[in-house]
Amino acid sequence: MNLYQMISPCHFGLESVLKRELTDLGLTITAVEDGKVHFQGGEQDICRANIFLRTAERVLVQAGSFKAESFDELFENTKAIDWASFLPQDAKVWVTKANSVKSRLFSPSDIQSIIKKAIVEKLKEQYHTETVPETGAEYPLRVSILKDTVTIGIDSSGVSLHKRGYRTDTVKAPISETLAAALLMLTPWKKDRILVDPFCGSGTFPIEAALIARGIAPGLEREFTAEGWKNLIPKKCWYEASSEAMDLQDPSAECDIQGYDIDPASIRAARENASRAGVSDMIHFQVRDVRELSHPKKYGFIVTNPPYGERISEKAELPGLYRTLGERFRAMDSWSMYLITSYEDAVRDLGLSPERNRKIYNGMLKTYFYSFPGPKPPKRQREEKVSER
Prior knowledge:
alpha/beta
């Protein structure tokens, strides 16, 4: 088995959740940076990371890392990498993205073209050929330059891992699947507790919660670029990783998960998405105004992504909406609430004091993840639920 250095990007502020996921998979963490976690693993682990990780955006196989303050250094150091150990002679290779922070090299297009040229020159030397046909499998590269340190990663995922395959119907400003999963994993919610999202939109929070409850690996029904890397990953590795994921599912798991939204089109989309995800039997979606938010049972969870007021016309409605949410939450005895928003006056209008406020970047948008935990159920009640299962 070959040992690879790998990198998984994630949302800024959620590195600890991804680190926990990787540790649970038995992988060795080598470093944690803002928005990414470095780890080690073999061929099988490239497959497992892609199939199992809920909070990572993609899985990169690190080809090399070096200092470069000039384009000459960038070319020579890129060419010094043993590219034949990663790429076959007919590899289709290109730099799909390059970013630079606090570095002398900052032009993405120049960085991309110089790295591509260096790789082609090295492959011609290593394979003793005058041309690189690029008729084979795809090996897209992602390059990051931070304080003049260049890191080149080969993207094994292809399409971002937040694309589970179930969400083709979307509504305005949806929360991504990876972000929703990470936020759920930051809460103490477990499948034996009620979960309600009163602003469910296309259903991402409820669907991700149902996938977690049933142990359904998020990448089980999609494809990955690295499936074409026959020179690095035997096909049996993908079969074994998929088989492992299937064995860990709990199809009999039951939950009380509910999603509400005032928009009928959103609820229709949510139901379709849940059906594609294979969890429609676990979630009750309903057209309902937040003013009608209530539940007869105790010790449930509200996990939600309320409107931020992206449009000027909507901003005037936010104080009333957040006041209503705060009032309804206070009326729900013993419940907990966790919400993500970029609305700066959310706490004031909710009329609540959060136990914790975690800053998280949703793309370029700075958001706040507020925690309003309620009491735990009595121990006897928790034991009864366990015995019932």
